[in-house]
Specification:
The protein contains 14 helices and 10 strands. With 348 residues, the chain is an alpha/beta fold. The protein folds into 3 domains: 6-125, Rossmann fold; 133-259, Rossmann fold; 267-347, Winged helix-like DNA-binding domain superfamily/Winged helix DNA-binding domain (Arc Repressor Mutant, subunit A, Orthogonal Bundle). The protein has a 5-stranded parallel β-sheet, sandwiched between helices. A 5-stranded parallel β-sheet has the order 7-6-8-9-10, sandwiched between helices. α12 (292-299) packs across α13 (303-317).
Length: 348
């Protein structure tokens, strides 16, 4: 049996230090998230390695201290690696209950840092039995609070994400018994009207995680797509939301999965997982019989760009032509219309 994964957060605005620390932690079998600025969410980490200043344009920046205060009531242990020289700041850091130690960058030693990391790694046998973990994917703070309150009362662990990118990262790093997903998520590309939640439903299905949709997007086509294409356990509309009914659906979904574990993602599904978001959009239109010109018009890109995407899709799926790509999509469970593939002479 393999050891449970350990998750570390590295926050340093200097990419050289980020790479150095992340590399050492990965060698020690930690799963690492390394970023240059304060992340939106700090939950789920066993260890945080922080710098004091997190803005290269502001030498007096103290955002690392703000992160430390946010971690006060969490089990996350902290190590500061910084060029900070202010004795008062260093004293404040080292006296904090979450902090293991403060290392000045000028005196950094790999062996000493490794020894500190070991202090943040208690024997797995001493770890308490953890309750089932549920991923909440919702960009509205009020609704996130509602879900967290209901699930906490039922004894579940919770991890929250506000966007597809953030949620996809949590799916990659941790195991969940269920995902609660909104279809409309925070998005820089389509802030007003998006369906980014569908991408998360696809990713969850590939990893065998059952899903419940709770959304204000209750159009019949959205509901049908959620059930038929992504196999969601339930679709709950926010209008008329009932706390008890939601808690019951969550329990039923988890119990159903325990009784009939989801089948591992097929080889073809894994192949589709290698595609980028744009390539999936192109493949979806290919399955609907679109020519390259029509795809370019639909996605507002050039035909040459479409051709490059198609070439990449064929290469990743290991097929020779568009019909082969659609065949792979069908085997992976994508909804494919019965109309034949339109072969445009200019598509070659």
């Amino acid at each position: 049996m393999t050891a449970d994964p350990r998750y570390a957060l590295v926050v340093d605005d200097d990419p050289r230090w980020r790479e150095l620390i992340a590399g050492i932690l990965r060698e020690l079998s930690w799963s690492v998230t390394a970023v240059g600025e304060p992340p939106a969410f700090l939950t789920g980490y066993h260890l945080a390695v922080l710098d004091v200043a997190l803005d290269p344009a502001a030498p007096d920046n103290r955002d690392g201290l703000k992160l430390l205060q946010q971690l006060t009531n969490t089990p996350t242990r902290c190590i500061f690696i910084s060029g900070e020289d202010d004795p008062d700041v260093i004293a404040e850091i080292t006296q904090h209950p979450n902090v293991i130690d403060f290392i000045h960058k000028d005196s950094f030693q790999r062996e000493a840092f490794t020894a500190l990391v070991q202090q943040a790694s208690p024997p797995l046998a001493d770890a308490p039995v953890e309750s089932p973990n549920i991923l909440i994917v919702e960009d509205d703070l009020r609704w996130r609070a509602i879900y967290e309150d209901i699930l906490a009362e039922a004894g579940y662990q919770r991890q929250c994400a506000a966007s597809y990118g953030e949620a996809r990262g949590w799916l990659q790093r941790a195991n969940y018994v269920l995902a609660v997903v909104d279809l409309h998520l925070a998005s820089s590309t389509a802030p007003q009207d998006n369906r980014d939640g569908f991408w998360l439903l696809r990713a969850a299905r590939q990893r065998g995680v059952p899903t419940i949709v709770v959304s204000a997007l209750g159009a019949p086509e959205d509901i049908d797509r959620a059930y038929e294409q992504f196999g969601v356990y339930a679709f709950v509309e926010k209008e008329g939301f009932d706390r008890r009914a939601f808690a019951r659906i969550v329990a039923e979904a988890i119990a159903s999965t325990a009784a009939s574990p989801a089948e591992p993602a097929s080889e073809t599904s894994l192949l589709l997982g290698d595609l980028t978001d744009r390539e999936r959009e192109v493949l979806d239109l290919l399955t609907q019989g679109y020519t390259n010109r029509q795809i370019a018009e639909a996605l507002l890109i050039t035909p040459n760009t479409v051709k490059k995407h198609v070439d990449h899709i064929l290469q990743k799926l290991g097929v020779k032509n568009r019909a082969g790509a659609v065949s792979v999509a069908m085997r992976a469970g994508m909804n494919v219309p019965s109309n034949p593939i339109k072969e445009d002479p200019s598509d070659g």
